[in-house]
Specification:
106 residues; mainly alpha; 3 helices
Amino acid sequence: MNVSRFVVVLLLVMGFATAKLPAQGGGRGGPPPDPENILARTATLKNQLMGIWETPSAAMVAQYTEAKTDLPKAIADANAWLTRAAAVGQALKKYDITLAVPPPVK
């Protein structure tokens, strides 16, 4: 097992990462966005809004409002995960394994 595979397995076992199979279905644009993935929902909404020229529908406005409230929590969760991953990276150094973790988002 190479080092990068070892690190992925280690992160999965320790609960710092999760493995998820891709969604099935969708149309020509690929699978629908995961309803739990705020980044995918935000990107889909942005693309929908950029693709129209008229006033957004009430459903799009509701999606925007939901994304606007969910995104700060998702960023805080990601920053917490990055902090934990940095701690794991420090623990792995004694085994000569480097885990490069980017700084938290501000």
